[in-house]
Amino acid sequence: MTDLKRTLGEAAAAAFAELGIPPTLGRVTPSDRPDLADFQSNGAMAGAKVAGKPPREIAQYVVDRLAGDPNLASVEIAGLGFINMRVSPAALSVRANEIAADDRKGAVEVEDSRRVIIDYAGPNVAKPMHVGHLRASIIGEAVKRIYRFRGDVVLGDAHFGDWGFQMGLLIVAAMDEIPFVRALMERLVTAPGGFSEADSQRVLQELGNHITLADLDRMYPEAAGRAKTDVEYRDRARKATAELQGGRFGYRLLWKHFVNVSRVALEREFHALGVDFDLWKGESDADPLIAGMVDELQAKGLLVEDQGARVVHVARPGETKKKKLEDGSTVTVPSPDPLLVVSSEGSAMYGTTDLATILDRRKSFDPQLILYCVDQRQADHFEQVFRAAYLAGYAAPGGLEHIGFGTMNGPDGKPFKTREGGVLKLHDLIEMAREKARERLREAGLGSELEPDEFEEIAHKVAVSTLKFADLSNYRGTSYIFDLDRFTTFEGKTGPYLLFQAVRIKSILRRARNEGVEESKISVKEPAERELVLMLDAFGAATAEAYDKKAPNFIADHAFKLAQAFSKFYAACPIMSAETDAIRGSRLRLARATLEQLELALDLLGIETPERM
Ligand code: ARG
Description:
Gyrase A, domain 2, Rossmann fold, 22 helices, 54% helix, binds arginine
């Protein structure tokens, strides 16, 4: 089953090919003048040079070849050689019925399914999240759903930041502050003989009584702040990090507890946002692979000594940049910078875990593609990691891709912060959006007759749609300003507008069901019906484009245009009061197909619609 755009594109391309013009030039696009045509092909202009003929002559040839195509009501030349096509009502009706009956609502799958890992969100133990993590979760979740929908086998991995310096900071802070922890750590300096798994469980449980999530939230910023100025404190935290990574038993238990506490809270918050992971692996999971990897890199001659550290050079000959030295002079150095694998203190770095994680993923899932949905500010880091991985043969060229994004800014144009000036807490952000949603619902007189529970559920869905749609309706590379007032209106290109339109169709369908009105075959007649069906037809192209460009905004755009087309249709073509049963049944089915496609598109964006409002 293919969409009309593609079917017509193939027919046009075949005609162009007969003139020796590359089929890609014959591509068909939705017309920019819907009053004149549904689709157009501009290939005659581009193909004129190749074919050595004037554009109008080429266009005439193609028009003659296409005349009589049963999908077309008319095909004509306009201007210099544009080819304008109008689809026949019969073809539109066939396509509409096909979409209505299709589970995938007209969108096809990729031909070759791949195994793909999406690495997204990347929250850290105890370290508060910032807007980069929020955007990574929203965009990554959508990309994961889009990839899965297109037929790939996809795993989403949170890649939990559970292994760096922040762990050493927390260990030191907990030891200083909590006598129980200090005593325990002293007792467990080395793995004590006779300490069983059950003993470990018991200790973990006890730790739960002494260190809560609130403690972690408080301790981390304090410790991080102190380490900035207090050298001795920082050294202790570094040492604790190294000892933890070296396997010190007591620290491992304490660390396990930090990880558990953080993870439970984070998973809950992500879930509230409709973000759920298939894998919740941590940076620590790559640790057992690091020693072997370092040996292997060494053996392959990739590891180079550099001022006491060991690095992999990733710049190709001639790739350089100018670097300013402390004395003000400039030197030319290779660019990108080398990847730091082992620090001068002997520790594994952020890039080291990323490289080892590629190996871990290869062992467990052998992905053909790993997409890293992470803040654009980490672009250089990923460039280094990917190049090192390709050099070492850990991934096939092109098998690793960073999908970066801009920032969500506050009204001051800087990365968004909460009113108190702190970094955002997912929970507070959702609650802020929920409060605004309640207000908007009340203003619009919606949901007043509902039970409080249902009202709350709706407010929550409106809030999530607000946050997600505001983010996903922009191309991911662009930064945007967080404006809750604008994002929550029921008019305009917003999440709440789309939910409202979906709910409106649901209520029409409910009413029809109650009144025993039955659907029947779609027969496209009115201009507003044509427009709506052409929009339904465009869904497949939107999903393909979102997939190819890893850019959910193409689906967000489609959902918005579809909702608008429905509004126009519903204003022009009454359903329940239509003249005949056949028209009523046809429009009803069209309405249902629209709802299903709209809900599917929203689902790909990670947005759920309520039953009513
Ligand atoms: N935890 C990291 C951070 O907060 C993000 C992790 C991104 N994923 C990765 N494979 N490096 O910056």
